[in-house]
Amino acid sequence: MATSAHQFEHPVSQGKDLISFDDAMEKLSREERFRATVYSMNTLLVQKGVYSSEEFEFQFRQFAQKNLR
């Protein structure tokens, strides 16, 4: 069963309010939105144990080496 991302309550660090998703989408450039998406997906996948930071770094280095030839 799919779970909506809105069902999760995340504590806000140091009591600071986060920017709304809609405001972020409006204010970030296209490149920044892409970077935020990659950051978010990677963070979630590592936190959920889908892969480790080391596995991510290995795949990243492998991609870089292949594409920098």
Give the arrangement of secondary structure elements.
Elements: H1 21-27, H2 30-47, H3 53-67
What does this structure look like?
This protein is an all-alpha fold and 69 residues long. It has helices at residues 21-27, 30-47, 53-67. The mean pLDDT is 86.
In short:
This protein has 69 residues and is mainly α.
List keywords for this structure.
69 residues; mainly alpha
Distance from N terminus to C terminus (CA atoms, Å) equals 43 Å
Query: How confident is the prediction overall: mean pLDDT?
Result: 86
Count the strands?
A: 0
- Overall geometric form: flat
